[in-house]
Specification:
- By secondary structure, the chain is α+β, with helices and mostly antiparallel strands.
- The protein has 3 domains: 113 residues, Arc Repressor Mutant, subunit A (Orthogonal Bundle), CATH 1.10.10.10; 35 residues, no CATH class; 72 residues.
- Helix content is 34%, strand content 11%.
- It contains 10 helices and 9 strands.
- The strands form 4 sheets. A 3-stranded antiparallel beta sheet has the order 1-3-2, with helices on one face. Strands 4-5 form a two-stranded antiparallel ribbon.
- The longest helix is centred in the C-terminal third of the chain and has 16 residues.
- It is rod-shaped and about 110 Å long.
- About 20% of the residues have low confidence.
């Protein structure tokens, strides 16, 4: 799930970003919005292309792979393989530039090069395996009547760390840790390599369909149209689908547009024509025959 992230003004005078191409720079900025709260993401060019370049079909997953290679060479991202043999990446300077309030733990494995201290994974960055339903973690307990003596509250790099050394329960039992805000519901970021369990994590159908329609349009052309034309058509198709127009009507309008070669902004009119144009009445041809009674047929005209 995409998030609102921070881009500092210094990014536009960064020597590291200046060493990569403009498309690689755009891919980097896009990764900031798609990475989880620890700066991690699946290292999968096709997934990233579908998230960041959906309306630019000319920028293929192969091009995104080149962008990622440039970013890795510039030291902006780190690519690694997790324990599950899947490829992952993370933004190297994530915690220096992204200040996130109450960040979620990551479901993706930690980087063995940057997220470890003396060979041990950095604490608090990777979510532990979930416990069975109804099971309480050791050292934690929730009671209806508790008196909480909150200790020091420390904030570091935009992340809050609460220390609660003393909790006295109603029945005089002392517990090490009590969370007054309820149980942790888990991270808000799914592993993009797994099968989505709900519609909120799946790609928007109209987005996928718009890309499919533009791909069909480009394939039917004798020569590939300019990328500005495809991009404009993609935006027009997306708007039509958002209005609830049947994809079959949009496809028919695109076919008329391809044949006529008009400006992309005429696509809505062509779709309207395909939807509502009245078919021409078929004229039945009748062969001419001379009348049997000429006087009756023409009267005084002869």
């Amino acid at each position: 799930m995409a998030r609102i992230r921070t881009i500092k003004p210094e990014a536009f005078v960064s020597e590291s970003l200046a060493a990569v191409t403009l498309t690689a720079e755009r891919t980097f900025f896009g990764l900031l919005t798609q990475a989880d709260d620890q700066g991690r993401h699946r290292d999968h060019a096709a997934i990233i292309a579908g998230q960041l370049w959906v309306l630019r079909p000319e920028h293929t997953p192969a091009d995104v792979e080149k962008d990622l290679a440039q970013l890795a060479d510039a030291g902006l991202i780190c690519r690694y393989t997790g324990p599950d043999d899947k490829r992952y990446l993370h933004v190297v300077t994530w915690h220096q530039h992204q200040k996130i309030n109450r960040p979620s733990k990551s479901r993706l494995p930690a980087c063995p090069h940057h997220d470890t201290v003396d060979g041990v994974a950095r604490a608090g960055l990777t979510e532990a395996a979930p416990l069975p339903h109804g099971t309480l973690r050791k050292g934690s307990r929730q009671q209806q009547e508790t008196t909480v003596n909150t200790g020091d509250v420390r904030e570091s790099a935009g992340q809050e760390d609460f220390t609660e050394p003393s909790v006295k329960a109603h029945d005089q039992l002392t517990e090490q840790s009590v969370s007054p805000q309820g149980p942790d519901l888990g991270p808000r970021i799914m592993d993009l390599g797994s099968t989505p369990s709900g519609g909120a994590s799946a790609p928007a159908p109209d987005t996928v369909l718009a890309k499919q329609l533009i791909t069909e349009y480009a394939a039917a052309c004798a020569h590939r149209p300019p990328k500005d034309v495809l991009g404009h058509l993609g935006r027009e198709v997306r708007k039509l689908l958002d209005e609830g127009i049947d994809p079959a009507h949009v496809r028919a309008g695109l076919e008329r547009h391809r044949v006529k070669g008009l400006h992309p902004r005429t696509l809505p009119s062509l779709v309207h024509e395909a939807m509502n144009a009245t078919p021409a009445r078929q004229v039945v041809h009748r062969s001419w025959t001379n009348p049997a009674d000429v006087a009756a047929a023409y009267g005084d005209q002869l």
